[in-house]
């Protein structure tokens, strides 16, 4: 597999004008950019190159974008920012449930897309100053921000960058109730109006990965949001 420069973004968009516009803006922001208008070629490029992030249009002419999203998440696990003309809430939530890390509805500002790409990569790459992992619930949950790893009952969890950011935010102050608005700002790194309810999709996926105790680890605080239901170990 060929390794490209750090900060490589693969843009998959069938409209040439949009594809080239995003390429120019991303390159100005310092990224190396690969582009294609084909879902099949995108999957081939993910196999042949090392991309740090995938910007994916769901409305592709050859393969449904959700199939590309599934394959990308199941294969390399590359972070994904979805582009779509589908504005319905159910479509946005569907993309997030399939593993998308962020969601942009057309028409959009290319600057906004660049900011979201930067925010997702910042979360993906971690960068905590913590000296070591934090432990909760008598060692059942361990969160290592420096290594960007989470383990539950001794097994490492395969979390998306957003799921990791959500759990790390809750673990920062165990027992404290965070509103969805607070979690959006802590996890995304900027305000995203209308995204608050989409946090629920990430919580659902996170609980599923935690198994039968998932709802007890990430507790619902009715009328507020969520909190970590485990105590920090001394």
Give me some keywords for this one.
elongated; Rossmann fold; 2 domains; alpha/beta; disordered N terminus; Arc Repressor Mutant, subunit A; 234 residues
What is the β-strand count? 12
Q: Output the number of helix runs.
A: 9
Total of domains: 2
**Poorly predicted ranges (pLDDT <50, ≥5 residues)?**
1-6
Mean pLDDT across the residues is 82
Rg over C-alpha atoms, rounded to the nearest angstrom: 18 Å
User: Roughly how many Å apart are the termini?
Assistant: 44 Å
**Per CATH, which architecture of the largest domain?**
3-Layer(aba) Sandwich
Which shape, going by the Cα principal axes?
Answer: elongated
Helical fraction: 40-55%
Major sheet size, sense and barrel closure: 5 strands, parallel
Broad structural category: alpha/beta
**Strand proportion:** 15-25%
Describe the strand arrangement of the main beta sheet, using strand numbers.
Answer: 2-1-3-4-5
CATH superfamily of the largest domain, called what? Response regulator
Q: CATH class of the largest domain, please? A: Alpha Beta
Secondary-structure element series: EHEHEHEHEHEEEEHEHHHEE
């Amino acid at each position: 597999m060929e390794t490209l420069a750090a900060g490589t973004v693969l843009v998959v968009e069938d409209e040439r004008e949009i594809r080239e516009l995003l390429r120019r803006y991303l390159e100005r922001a310092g990224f190396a950019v690969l582009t294609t208008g084909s879902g099949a070629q995108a999957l081939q490029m993910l196999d042949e190159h090392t991309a740090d992030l995938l910007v994916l249009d769901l409305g592709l002419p050859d393969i449904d974008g959700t199939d590309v999203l599934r394959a990308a998440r199941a294969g390399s696990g590359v972070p994904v920012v979805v582009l779509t003309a589908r504005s319905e809430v159910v479509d946005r939530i569907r993309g997030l449930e399939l593993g998308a890390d962020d969601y942009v509805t057309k028409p959009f500002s290319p600057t906004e897309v660049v900011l979201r790409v930067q925010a997702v990569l910042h979360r993906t790459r971690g960068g905590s100053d913590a000296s070591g992992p934090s432990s909760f619930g008598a060692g059942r949950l361990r969160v290592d921000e420096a290594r960007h790893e989470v383990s539950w009952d001794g097994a490492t969890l395969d979390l998306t960058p957003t799921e990791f950011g959500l759990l790390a935010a809750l673990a920062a102050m165990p027992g404290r109730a965070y509103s969805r608005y607070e979690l959006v700002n802590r996890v995304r790194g900027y305000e995203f109006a209308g995204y608050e309810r989409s946090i629920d999709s990430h919580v659902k996926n996170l609980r599923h990965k935690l198994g039968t105790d998932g709802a007890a680890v990430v507790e619902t605080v009715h009328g507020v949001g969520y909190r970590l239901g485990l105590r920090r170990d001394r």
